What we know:
Blueprint: E1 2-4, H1 11-15, E2 20-23, E3 28-31, H2 37-47, E4 56-59, H3 74-77, E5 85-90, H4 97-100, E6 105-110, H5 114-123, E7 127-128, E8 130-131, H6 143-150, E9 156-158, E10 170-173, E11 179-181
Amino acid sequence: MLLTQQPTDLIGPFKQGLIFAYPTEAVYGLGCDPDKKMSVLRLLHIKQRPLHKGLILIASDFSQVEKYLKPLSAEQLKCTAPSKTTYIYPTLDSAPRWLTGGFDSLAIRITKHPLVQELCATLDSALVSTSANVSGLEPARTADKVSQLFDKKIDAVLDGKLGDLQSPTKIRDSLTGDVVRF
């Protein structure tokens, strides 16, 4: 498993469809190229997470995710600035079901985390972003813990500092503003 502190070291693994971990606002996340179905399915298998639950995408810029979404209202566009909140947006019919699960929407965060912003900008892509844990268990908060949990199951770890949140990001509905997860 590759352990790195440089986002540029993940360009090759990303293009190859490999699975990697990276620090987010509160915990380490597991990610891959959201457009590579086999990579996403492998990630779900590693996490033991059912497909029907859907996933979160993380990006440095809204342009990296808008291809999946229906046109946004002026109110929804206010939710596209970098923040520590994840928003749920209605998707186009063409949005991959391996990302949306059983929903006609997709959870997306335009991150404020500097290292993840750099990673997404370097890869020029959004990433799948799901907590680095087996479903139902505590997520990893260090690169060492990720390595312990997923040794030989994932391909790389981007070592870095977590953000300042104590729990995973809040999720809000972009249409109603309702909080879906605290």
